[in-house]
Description:
The protein has seven helices and no strands. It has 186 residues and is an all-alpha fold. 6% of the residues are buried. The mean pLDDT is 81.
Amino acid sequence: MNSIHDATSTILDWFAWLPDWAITASVLVLAVIIAFALHRLVRRLVRNLLAKRAPVAASIFGRLRGLTLLALLVLAIFAAIPLTRVGHDSAVAMARVMAIALICLIGWAMIAGLNIAADLYLLRFRIDIEDNLLARKHITQVRVLLRTLDALVILFTIGAALMTFDAVRQYGVSLFASAGVAGIVA
């Protein structure tokens, strides 16, 4: 790990004549470009591997494209922050933004997981047959439950994001309490 840090420090020293904002912007743009390229490469490899062997898994993987891209972007930018030449306050602000992005990513992943689980459950029921009362009943129940759970996840996500700020931490705690009450009611 030290060899990677030494190599990046050496490369950054070559560009010491540039202003700090230019080095910071270059490092962050390079991290974003690497994340996009890595995401595209991994998606192509996984899609080719899963396309014929597991079409359901390939479909699920296709639905997670935005989520995996955001995860790689957050990881790349978070890893690039120590390489930037910004002050302590700016680095703390960037880390806070990345923490909020991570909280949103977790919320999005939970909603995506709930939607995928609901879709997989509903695959058992066919509505294209004549006697489809049971299937329509299950579909309606799952959709209502899914909307309720999505609302709870969104409330928890907003509450957790608000709790990262000291000034509005109480609002985040209040959102958690209201989400808990809403969960009990649901």
